[in-house]
Specification:
heterodimer, A: 255 residues, alpha/beta, Rossmann fold, 2 domains, six-stranded mixed beta sheet, three-stranded antiparallel beta sheet, globular, B: 271 residues, MetI-like fold, 10 helices, flat, binds adenosine-5'-triphosphate, binds magnesium ion
């Protein structure tokens, strides 16, 4: 299933936050969205996930979601959004219960996603007993449990320390290589973008517009921490971002 | 920079600890000790005479009265009837209160319509309405249930919708983003999230329920702790009056203990 954004624009009151965003998200690809703070990345993701409606333009699902997909557009939140009163197991079964999946079937699915995110030993732990990185893995496991067609990830790793982030990036790459998933991945971190993205979309300052789309052809599995060609991409992205951030600062001075 | 290894440990001072406090723990025996201390003071004062017998009855006499009440079998008659009224009245009031509170927390129209109404009826002393309840529900049990229910209802509503307002919105968004049904979100996210606030509201509501129980029983009840106290009071029988008061206090401790047990079971995820 592909996603197409067609001329999406939006204003909150008088403030225009994004303008004319047209973008294709092909299935099996990770599309990273980067841009200065406040340019509308989270808002765009809420539009794609159907949690809010844009003023202009349309968001289209092209094709049907794959067989067995319970929740085509599935979020991974920056702050994990785990229910503190449910165990790891309970947090995942929460999203299955409404689809009438209980008992043995549910347990099989949950065991599978916990194994894939290396959490098998923590099935009965409560969220407060987990570290930040483990909580985010639970959130990822929960997203995997509903077999999403597209994962919508809003800075999923930004609440974590840099070592945990590296490890989780490896985990995500592993997950993707074993079974490619489609994802829209919003981040501030250019290293994450070049590591995980097949496509990196650079948004301009507010109102957010597409400044450039950078394609990174190197297969995910071959990318490594500190690769020279990735560094080159990262440098290029940083140039673009820096110009935007500078311009945004200059605008602030002249208000 | 100076070389720290050249200095002897005796040059150093331990960093003073300043991180304690602000984390009260339950020390059960302290409560008992305070009670025992107060009772002993009263006993000593009344025996030695610097508290006159008219000011305060002797705690030991109160105990004797209590024992007589127990032996005559009237204790359980009073207590049983009172507990029944308390449980039924408070259950009606709390369940309607929680339901209305949740509705106010969830729906704009209900909120706009009912919040002013609740604000208007909250400050009315419910005891003042007792005659009205007697007219509406009769002099029997009905008016007593109604009074207690009404008194528990308002604080429960206010606590509940406050608690629902405080439920983490990102959790609700999460539920929606996974396509959970409205009813699932309410049942599995909103209600558990509001539970801490609802339970601490119930503590207050049930204390109010005990106060109203006595008030209701002072009017047209033959048996019940309120009736017992009223009778003792009109005869200036301080021992019996105090025996009744002790029963009420015990009831209060019992109710608060029950809520404590529920909190520990339902809110174990917090600590
Ligand atoms: N519900 C809302 N009502 C009004 N304005 C909003 C709302 N949500 C976002 N905005 C505004 O829209 C703009 C874009 O917000 P958004 O959260 O999408 O930015 P972002 O790119 O995700 O920023 P960051 O990188 O800091 O997370 C901001 O200027 C913000 O003030
Ligand atoms: Mg954001």
């Amino acid at each position: 299933m592909d996603i197409r954004l067609d001329g999406v624009g939006h204003s909150y009151g008088d403030a225009e936050v994004m303008r004319d965003i047209t973008l294709d998200i092909a299935s099996g690809q990770i599309v990273c969205i980067v841009g200065p703070s406040g340019c509308g990345k989270s808002t765009l993701l809420r539009f794609i996930g159907g949690l809010e409606r844009p003023d202009h333009g349309r968001i289209l699902q092209i094709g049907t979601p794959p067989e067995g997909c319970l929740n085509p557009l599935t979020y991974v939140f920056q702050d994990f959004a785990l229910l503190p009163w449910r165990s790891v197991f309970g947090n995942i079964s929460l999203v299955l219960e409404d689809h009438g999946i209980r008992g043995k079937t549910a347990k099989a699915i949950i065991d599978d996603v916990l194994a894939r995110t290396k959490l098998t030993d923590f099935a009965s732990a409560l969220p407060r007993q987990l570290s930040g990185g483990m909580k985010q893995r639970v959130a990822i496991a929960r997203a995997l449990a509903v077999k999403p067609a597209v994962m919508l990830m809003d800075e999923p790793l930004s609440a974590l320390d840099s070592q945990t982030r590296e490890l989780l990036m490896d985990d995500l790459v592993d997950l993707w290589t074993r079974q490619p998933f489609t994802a829209v991945y919003v981040t501030h971190n250019l290293a994450e973008a070049v590591r995980l993205g097949h496509k990196v979309v650079v948004l301009s300052r507010r109102p957010g517009q597409i400044r450039e789309i950078v394609d990174i052809d190197k297969p995910l599995g071959d990318r490594e921490f500190g690769d020279a060609d990735l560094e080159a991409h990262q440098k290029h992205l940083w140039q673009l971002m820096r110009d935007e951030a500078r311009a945004a600062d200059a605008e602030l001075l002249h208000v | 920079m100076s070389d720290i290894s050249s200095k002897s440990p005796s040059d150093g001072r331990a960093v003073s600890f300043r991180g304690g406090g602000f984390a009260p723990k339950s020390r059960r025996w302290v409560g008992f000790a305070v009670f025992a201390f107060l009772i002993l003071i009263a006993e000593w004062g009344t025996r030695s005479g610097w508290i006159s017998a008219l000011t305060l009855p002797k705690p030991s006499d109160v105990l004797v009265t209590f024992h007589e009440l127990y032996q005559s079998g009237l204790l359980f008659k009073h207590l049983g009837l009172s507990l029944g009224r308390l449980v039924i009245g408070a259950a009606i009031g709390a369940s309607i209160g929680i339901s209305v509170g949740v509705l106010i927390g969830l729906f704009s129209y209900i909120r706009s319509g009912l919040v002013p109404v609740i604000a208007a009826i909250f400050p009315i002393p419910k005891i003042a309405l007792l005659p009205l309840f007697v007219i509406w529900f009769g002099i029997g049990e009905g008016s007593k249930y109604a009074l207690i229910a009404f008194g528990t209802f308002t604080p429960t509503v206010v606590a509940t919708y406050g608690a629902v307002d405080n439920v983490d919105r990102t959790l609700i968004r999460m539920g929606q983003s996974f396509g959970l049904s409205w009813w699932s979100i309410v049942r599995k996210i909103v209600l558990p999230g509001a539970m801490p606030g609802i339970l601490s509201g119930l503590r207050i509501s049930f204390a109010i329920a005990i106060i109203l129980l006595v008030a209701a029983e002072m009017l047209g009840a033959e048996y019940g702790i309120g009736a017992y106290i009223l009778e003792a009071g009109s005869l200036y029988d301080l021992e019996r009056l105090f025996a009744g008061v002790v029963i009420l206090s015990l009831l209060g401790v019992l109710v608060s203990g029950c809520i404590g047990v529920i909190e520990r079971r339902v809110l174990g995820w917090r600590s």
